[in-house]
Amino acid sequence: MTSTAIPTFTPGPRLLPVMPADQQAELDPYMAQIVGYRKSGLSLNHIIGCPLECGYCVRHFWGNFEVKVPHLLMPTEEAIDRLVGHEAFRPGVTPIQLFNKATDPFLPGVKPHLFQVLQALDASGFTNHVLLITRFKVTEADMAALERLQHLRVTLLFTYSGITDPRVEPISKSEITVTSIRTAAAHKRRTGVVLYWRPIVPGWNDAPDTMARVLDVGRDADAIVFTGYYHKPENADYLRGLGVPVPFGEDYHRRKTMPADLDAAVVAAWRTSGISTPLFRKTSCGVAYAHEVPDYNGHWGVRELCDICPAAQQQRCADDHTPPTPASMDRILGQLGYQTQYVIEDGHVWTHGLGEQRRYAIQHGLRYQIWELDQPHHLHAHGRSLNGHRADAAQVEVFTAVRQQFEQEARYEDD
Ligand code: SF4
Fold first, then answer.
1. What is the mean pLDDT of each run of 10 residues along the chain (415 residues)?
2. Which ranges of 40-199 would DSSP assign to H, the alpha helix?
3. pTM
4. Among 227, 263, 280, 303, which residue has the most ligand 1 atoms within 8 Å of its CB, making it the best to mutate?
5. Helix-, strand-, coil-residue percentages of the chain, each rounded to 5
6. Which residues line ligand 1 (CB under 6 A)?
7. Could you give the domains of the chain?
């Protein structure tokens, strides 16, 4: 692609092709994973590929950005079985995300599969949260179908950044997303509607008038959630190749970038906007608020996140915040079949060696932050177990440093 080419998009076919087995065998393992546990929930992704051409797309990282046509990796019935058969799935508890990794659930070819999954889960009487992230066309008929669900607690998260450069977001000129947000907000009753304000990037969409416009679009949503963007070489190279100025230089990070001054500017813009829609830093907080329940990730344990949250919601989270006891930790570990040493502290529990996916399963089960103390050398230097340890000065220092690191990461970790 030359530096003057402006990407355009088509919505893709109505009938999706199945990806041949030999191509599936070549996929990056992350792209090939059909059910995976993420911070916002257990995530089903048996369709991958997207035509929308967002320049910063995370699919750059796993070699999937060039796949513009959504492909099925397996039949939808089988995928549903795999989701509810996952070791960590719990009816009524486990938040679920559908097609949030490598496609858009409302593309014409993906939508029938989306509703097939929703209707099957709802028919089973599951009351779980279901998160649907989209920037595509959501019609009145789609809203009517969502509203007919009786059990699932569905939230639509509309990715809308206010970016107007078509090299970064070809869809932005179409007004498709803004129209969808207005349609959803006008027809929601039991469906949550969140304006997902991301990515916010200095120079792209942080000007005061741009922020004011995004906030105005969110006027009738239940909540607005804001986050930064993944600054990695793969998407930065692509965007720079199109001639787009990309900030942050070569300072690449594993997590999303949201500098403190940008966070402050967003909060200030929201305060001066005059809208009454609450603003959140965390996806699960916005989703929980939309359904009037406490945050399922237990962010109340990282209180600095909560300063902008409505008082009634803070009260819900405070009332719900129950530190696990050793008995309740042992019980949930036993139920999930996981093993770890742990230390229960105020606002979080340290665990060791579980890996992200298992930690999130426990976190959602307890609605309490579950952290990883990846310091086996220090922990075991004195032959103590994690549980009930008596810390010496050196170990206290280590804990303090790792705790600070985790507080930081809890702010920026991926949703
Ligand atoms: S009180 Fe804190 S944890 Fe609860 S929803 Fe609000 S911001 Fe999130």
1. 67 92 94 94 96 82 86 98 97 97 96 98 98 97 98 98 91 92 98 96 94 98 93 87 86 75 95 98 97 97 94 98 97 96 90 93 96 57 37 66 68 60
2. 76-84, 111-123, 140-148, 176-187
3. 0.91
4. 280
5. 40, 15, 45
6. 280, 282, 285, 288-289, 295, 299-300, 305-306, 309, 313-314, 317
7. 21-290 (3.20.20.70), 326-412 (no CATH)
